[in-house]
Amino acid sequence: MTDIRQLCCEKARLRVSDSKIVCPRHASVEVRHRIAAIDTRAPEIGIPAIQPAQGATWSMNYAWPYGSHGDLGARERLIEWASKRRLTWSKKSRCFHALLFGSCAIRDCSVSDSRGVPLLNEVTGLGLDARWMDHVTLWERDKIPALLLSQPYTDASDVRDVLTLPGPQSALQVEILDRGWHTPAAAYLGFRLDERVSPAGSVPVCSSCRSRRSRHWQVHRTTLDWLCLSCWGGDPYDVPDGCEYKSGERREMRRWHALAVAFRGTASTDKEIAA
Predict the structure, then answer these.
(1) Which residues of the chain have pLDDT under 70?
(2) How many CB atoms lie within 10 A of CB 94?
(3) Same domain, 99 and 77
(4) Which of 167, 193, 219 is the last residue of a domain?
(5) Which of 146, 156, 149, 145 is nearest to 181 (CA)?
(6) Where are the beta strands (DSSP E) in the chain?
């Protein structure tokens, strides 16, 4: 909750320091120069401009991501962070589907599918809590999704204690920092993809009969071998809990298999990997 003593007056909206929030009337020349300097660099990282008819104000000429829209210091940290990593803000869905496959077709993914966290956990064993996906932004490099960033209000050490980080050979790498460009109370969880996963997924070939035709497929969770429905011999809709095979329809299993191949790796240490 904001301390009323930090406000210059009741119209204060822009935080300019840890102890000061100002309005246009009480904004100093220095503050206005800082705003102008940051606005000049906003297009470099893909932040779209706001037109006067769309509600642009003295301090909000660009559509800054949540967490930096009302905080001048956060905008400055964001600019330096994105520029250093050669990243630009993405308009695509802020979820793991967009990061992994390049796009997302799930409506209201953040609500209906928790931004793809269940799929990611099942394939990788990461152990990510969906509640840690807060203040999420997606970032691109050369117009390709490269980094999904979450900055939740939690202690970074709690996240480190829970996650089983991917091995060095995994396509997905995770960076955990005590603070990002958001507020000091927010941790930094960066999910970086080093290898693009095909949206179509892997091509199934039965390891027993070598058939490529089956509506339903089973994949061994350890060896990642395929079994067609005929060789499986069971009901694909009645797979017992704890079964060593993952079962599903062709499209679903092609993606699952492709992710499993890309992310296979041994658990690594808690080393922070620069994005």
Answers:
(1) 1-5, 196, 265-275
(2) 22
(3) no
(4) 193
(5) 149
(6) 14-17, 20-22, 88-89, 137-141, 144-150, 172-177, 188-193, 216-220, 226-228, 245-249
- Domain with 158, as residue range(s), is 88-193
Q: Read off the pLDDT of residues 188-236 as tens digits, 9 standing for 90 and up.
A: 999 998 776 777 778 899 999 999 999 999 999 889 999 999 998 888 8
Is the residue at 207 inside a domain? no
257 contacts 219 by C-beta, under 8 angstroms: yes
Nearest to 189 by CA among 83, 76, 94: 94
Same-domain status, 66 and 96: no
Give yes or no for a contact between 116 and 96, defined as CB atoms under 8 angstroms apart.
yes
Q: Of the candidates 53, 84, 115, which is a domain's last residue?
A: 84
Q: What token pair was written down for 236?
A: 């694909």
Say which amino acid occupies 267.
A
Length of the chain measured in residues: 275
Q: Are 208 and 223 in contact (CB under 8 A)?
A: no
CB 246 within 8 A of CB 218: yes
118/150 same-domain check: yes
**Can you give the pTM of this predicted structure?**
0.83
